[in-house]
Amino acid sequence: MPATSDDPDKARRFREAALPYLDDVYTLARYLLRDASDAEDAVQECYLRALKHFDSYRGPAMKPWLFAILRNVCNAEYARRAARPSAIEDTPGAADQTPIWQESEASPEAEVLRSRDAGAIRKLIDALAEPFKETFVLREINNLSYREIAEAVGAPVGTVMSRLARARAMLRAAWTAEEEHSR
Amino acid sequence: MTCDEARIMLHALLDGELDAGHAREVEAHIADCADCAAEFAAQRQMQRVLADTNLRYAAPASLRNKIEASLPKAQTPPSRRSVLRGFAMGSAVSALAATGIVALVLRQDDQQRILSEVVSAHLRSLQAGHLIDVLSTDQHTVKPWFNGKLDVAPPVIDLTAQGFTLVGGRLDYIDARAIGAVVYKRRQHVINLFVAQTSSTEHRPPKTQTMQGFNCRRWGERGLNFWAVSDIGGDELAEFVDKFETAMKANAEG
User: Fold this and answer.
1) Residue B105: HSE in the Cβ half-sphere, 13 Å Cα cutoff
2) Structural domains counted in chain A
């Protein structure tokens, strides 16, 4: 005897299924948009869309599904920014986030990277170019498997692998370059 | 394997994404190629530093509130009342339980309700601090912990060697009864294995259902009902259940 109407029940199921991933979704939004308030708007929009489509949602896993929705929201935001180029210029620190390094051949012996504080590392990641950054964040920070990343970004696993390799090579090069610089 | 291939594959090796055959190929290349070995070592080191750094962001409370506020309000919160009503319906079940035989006579909609309870229990367990009552990767610590807390302690099997790490155990409540939950991890994904006693000793082959994006694989064996729940893919969960059943069979025979 289902006494309760459908909607509150749906809201409850949605809350239980989707809200535990709020920090994950917000983290990805912060890296993709590099702006706290844009990230907040995007995540809110993402959850609205997810709720709207929750009825038709049949899996696979919740996290990649939410990420796929978030990516669509962010793409709209990129388009909006591109239409108003000044918006990008206004982003604090945009100028010094432009990649300044060359993707140099790794030197033969493994340099030892010094531990850096989280803020410095976040900046290095922020500066990675897309689509390498999102692949890197999904794997290293959101802990998705290759298959789940492929699902979230709608690309084959082989593409995910090569993007990830490229992203890590770029990150290491930037990291090393910065250490040389600060030496 | 060429260096170009290795430069991509070594990441999959680092991430534990390669099967044994490919892993061996990459390792063989690294053993022979100083450049790729150096790259592998450097990437492994970077991964460790990254893993030791908190690179996540926490969603602001205001955002959480805004999203909560945008959800349709529940007039009657999914309260104990409605839950209890559900159990009152299953009084036949309770009557049997009172005789000392814990029986789960499942009708189709009961199964659906229990599945939804199992998924809810899984979700609850993912909230901080709710996952594990006894934290141990040692099956000889986890199993005795259940003794005295449940009529029948669930089988606790270490599957670390098979790629599923035992992380601990927990008491949970499904269908108004205390049951054991054994917790495993696959990479960062949690697998809850719920185990409940049943009067039926027949073997029920595993079956996967999906609810709210979680895969739940359910089977029955030797008077126990099992539900394995996780957000890992259906095939990985099936692999987990296979490994678990094989190990359980080996234990019973050995």
Assistant:
1) 11
2) 2
Alpha carbons B221 and B206: distance in angstroms, whole number: 10
Name the domain boundary from A65, A98, A131. Answer: A98
Predicted local distance difference test score (pLDDT) of residue B96: 43
pLDDT digits (tens, 9 = 90+) for B29-45: 999 999 999 999 999 99
CB–CB contact B71 A51 (8 Å): yes
The larger pLDDT score, comparing residue B57 to residue B112, is at B57
Residue B190 pairs in a beta bridge with B185
Lowest mean pLDDT among A95-99, B9-13, B14-18, B95-99: A95-99
Q: Say whether the peptide bond before residue B155 is cis (omega within 30 degrees of 0).
A: no
Contact check, Cβ <8 Å, B70/A115? no
Full domain range(s) for residue A164: 99-183
CATH superfamily placement of domain B92-253? MucB/RseB, C-terminal domain (3.30.200.100)
* Same domain membership, residue A89 and residue A52: yes
Say if the Cβ atoms of B187 and A145 lie within 8 Å: yes
Whole-complex ipTM:
0.78
**Rounded distance between C-alpha atoms, residue A29 and residue A46, angstroms:** 10
Please list the rounded mean pLDDT of every run of 10 residues in chain A (183 residues). Answer: 56 86 95 93 94 80 91 86 57 40 42 70 92 95 90 90 94 87 71
**What CATH number is associated with residue A149?**
1.10.10.10
A86 and A123 fall within a common domain? no
If asked whether residues A76 and A122 sit together in one domain, one would say no
Lowest mean pLDDT among B25-34, B67-76, B132-141: B67-76
Q: How many CB atoms lie within 10 A of CB B105?
A: 12
Round to whole Å and give the CA distance between A119 and A62. 29
Domain final residue pick, A78, A98, A118:
A98
User: Pick from A30, A33, A25, A37: which is nearest to A66 by CA?
Assistant: A25
**CA distance, residue B99 to nearest chain A CA (Å):** 27
A148 shares a domain with A82: no
Same domain as A48, residue A116: no
Among residues 53-92 of chain A, which lie with CB inside 8 Å of chain B?
57-63, 65
State the smallest CA–CA distance between residue A81 and chain B in angstroms: 22
Q: Which of A26, A53, A67 should we substitute to test contact with B (largest number of B Cβ atoms within 10 Å)?
A: A26
